[in-house]
Every structure is written in C-alpha cells, then in structure tokens.
Amino acid sequence: MQFADIYGYQALKQQFAHLTHSGQMPHAVLLEIQEGYPGLHLAWAWAQYIQCQSPTDEDSCGACASCKKVAAIAHPDVIFVYPVVKAAQDETPTERYFDEWRTFLERSPYITDQDWLEVLEAGNSQPVIYVNEINSLLSRLSVTTTEGGWRTIIIYQPERMNDAAANKLLKSLEEPPAETLFILVSAHSDRLLDTILSRVQRFELPPMTEAEMREALTAMHPELATDALEAMIPLVDGNLSDALRLLDSSASQDKLQELAQQWYDATLRADILRLKLLSEEVDKAGREGAVAFLKLLMQQVGQQWHRALRGEARVGELRVNNKAMGACYRLLEEAMREIRGNVLTKMVLFDTFLRMLLALRN
Fold first, then answer.
1. What domains appear along the chain, each with residue ranges and CATH number?
2. Could you say which residues form the signal peptide (predicted)?
3. Is residue 88 a contact partner of residue 133, using CB atoms and an 8 Å limit?
4. What is the C-alpha separation between 61 and 126, in angstroms, rounded?
5. pLDDT in tens, 59-107
6. CB atoms within 10 A of CB 334
7. Neighbouring residues of 206: CB distance < 8 A, sequence distance ≥ 6
8. Per the count of CB atoms within 10 A, which of 140, 148, 216, 314 is most buried?
9. How many whole angstroms separate alpha carbon 257 and alpha carbon 181?
10. Distance set, CA 180 to CA 143, 145, 153, 247, 259 (Å)
11. Distance separating alpha carbons of residues 347 and 330, to the nearest angstrom
C-alpha cells in the first residue's frame, strides 16, 4: 500500500513523510476519521513508507523486499490489531480472523467499521480487542525487531478495547519501546480513555475537497456523466466512500429527486401511510442512498429556510416560517447522524418524516 493508492490527503501524506525522516517521529498517533475515510489505509501506507529501503520524499518505492512484505501483510515489524468476536480465550485472538482481515484490507481504502462487522458475521456479538491480544502484542514488542529499524503497530477501532486491554496499552504508551510507532485509527475517538488521548499526537482527516472528489470519481468511474458527477458531489460531504456506495446502489440522482418529490407530496397531504411506505422505499437504497436522500432534502429545506427569513417559504401550498424550516433542517441533520451511526434506517426515516410534518403543520 502506497500513499499514491489513496486519493487526496496530500498535506497529511507529506506530513507523515516528513516525520519519518525528521528524527522527531512520535511514538503514538491517533488518526481521527469519519466512517468511510481511508485512515486505516493511510496508516498502512505510512508503515510501508517507514519500512521502505528506497523511499522518495513523497512515497515508498513499492518495489523493494520490505515494501512487498508490507503490501502482502507479511512484514514482521508491521503489526495489525483489530476487534474480533468470540475469541476471548485465544492467546492471540486476531489470528483466528487473519484471512478475513487480509481480504478486508485488500478490498478498498474506502471501507467502514460496518463492513468489518459484516465480514466477522458478528450478529448480535460486539467485536472486542481483548486483553490477550494486547498481552501478545507486548510480548512481541519486548524482543528486538526482526529486520532492524522501526516497528509499526496499527490499531483499528481502538475504542473497542475492553478495559483491561486499554489499561495494558496505556502502560506502553506511557513508556513506549524504542523505535516503535503506535497508529490508532478511529471513527469514534470520543470513546477512548482520556489518558490514552493525552498520550497520542492527533491527526484529524478532513473531508476531501470538491476538486479531489472530482479527480477520484472521474478516475474510478470514467463512464460517469459530468452532470451526474456534479450533482453527486454536494450530496456526500467529501466522503468518497459514500459516493462510491451511492454509485453502486439503486439510488440514482433521478431516483433521489423522485423520492424527494414524493416526500413533498405526502407531507402536503399529511399522508402518514405514504410517509411510512416512503421510509421503506428509501431504506432499500442502503445507508449511503438514505444519507444522500436526506442531504438532498437538506439542500431543498435550506433553500426554503433562507426564503423563510424573507417570509416567502412554502412546502407545496403550505406557507412556513423560519422556525419551522430551521426545525426541519436540524431534524434532517440528526437523522443523518443516526443513520451513519448504524441505527435502523427506516425507523429513523419514518420518525423524522413525522416530526418534520408536525413542525411544518404547527
């Protein structure tokens, strides 16, 4: 995995490359991401850059023996830690799922925590980073690196460490082994212990710019018409993962517009049954389609909100005020957060539609 395999984030890539050669390498960093951002793969690419025998100022060579080992997830000094299920008694729980992990990593840089849950077939079980995993890791860190130089430990979803594991890791962060870099990658860093947060250097991955999104989508989907591309970019808030999933879903731009019109019609008539059916229809488009639909409604509601400030806003024949449109906008924001947090989509949608109807009618 090279930096070049990941679209965008040039400033971060340059910063990681500079740190590697600066003599001021941190011992622990936290990559704070949104779901679908390529933080895990940026960490992997950085680990390869550190191990590379012939790096440039910008990237690993991708051709030396070390690069090939890291790319194959076979380098002994690049260690991945990740949550698993039903393996609390294993000495090294991740070993049971190594083949699944390799396949997961090789799928795409634009993966989500939910994707890993589906790979694990977790069902009602909550994935955990068990204390045995951290004990095994610390045992490996107590011996000299296999190939000399730095060792990199990438911890994915560190917020899923149980208390015993988190406290064990904390001791290593307080007294880090020499030439060892811990990279924590989390979409939920607010769930980490404050004591862990205080011992890491934090990097927040920003949304991709419109120019970066345009470049990436044009390269990955050259068949995509320009007008469809330009219509999609505002719907995904700089999240390339959401854009790619939207393209793979049944939720075309025309379909989203049609669903938005159905929402307006059902809301105008206060047709509760139609709103319920609509929530089920939007749910069929998947999480990304539902988020894009809500984003489209937010754009339209936002336009009406500005008009409401001048007393000109309408939803169909309903004349609505600034307070009503503001309430609707905030309800849509809340719904997007819940759906991205994997709350049941159709339940969130129907509840939001009803609350918006009440706000508009009142």
1. 3-206 (3.40.50.300), 240-361 (1.20.272)
2. none
3. no
4. 39
5. 999 999 999 999 999 999 999 999 999 887 888 889 999 999 999 999 9
6. 15
7. 238
8. 216
9. 48
10. 12, 9, 8, 40, 52
11. 17
